[in-house]
Design brief:
By secondary structure, this protein is an alpha+beta fold. The chain is built from 4 helices and 8 strands; from the N terminus they run ββααβββαβαββ. The longest helix is centred in the N-terminal third of the chain and has 24 residues.
Length: 170
């Protein structure tokens, strides 16, 4: 269950490691001076530890999205898992330098296939702000259909994909 997952395009998903803290900080921290960034490194390490703990407890499965050189390009996860209903909540992010290159779409597709196969889930959901067009494009290209919500402004748009839906990468 913890083996790397091929996401296609030279990308793969792997479990987070303690050494990933600086990469998380670089990708998610706002542009800041060295002093502020150095102060945030413990928080990034805590974030990585929390993702690893979710694996242990079975409450979530987060992956680093990496390239062939094992450079962290982003993250993808399924959390909020309800095994009785067979559902989970998908989240994703990418480093600013790789946005718009299909990294998130490939990662979400791979995560969905893995979640259906390894976890036995039958429905995955995700949400994004109505004004986050890029996140909507990722969701749709990964096979998640709009299921509700109101577009525009800060409202959240809900997408879902069923295990029985066609795999958009096939």
């Amino acid at each position: 269950m913890g083996e790397p997952i091929d996401a296609g395009g030279g990308y793969r998903l792997r479990r987070w490691t303690p050494a990933d803290g600086p990469a998380v900080l670089a990708a998610l921290a706002p542009a800041a001076g060295q002093v502020q960034a150095a102060g945030q490194l413990p928080a990034a390490g805590h974030w990585v530890r929390a993702r690893r703990e979710e694996w242990v407890t079975g409450t979530g499965y987060g992956f680093a999205v990496v390239d062939a050189r094992d450079t962290v390009l982003g993250g993808v996860a399924v959390t909020g898992i309800d095994r009785r209903r067979g559902t989970g909540w998908v989240s994703y992010w990418t480093a600013p330098a790789v946005r718009g290159r299909g990294v998130a779409t490939r990662a979400v597709r791979a995560l969905a296939r893995w979640s259906y196969r390894e976890l036995g889930l039958i429905r995955l959901e995700l949400g994004h702000r109505g004004d986050n067009r890029a996140s909507c494009v990722v969701a749709v290209r990964a096979g998640f259909r709009v299921r509700g919500g109101v577009g525009g402004g800060p409202d959240v748009e809900l997408h879902a994909r069923l295990a029985s839906d066609p795999d958009p990468s096939a």
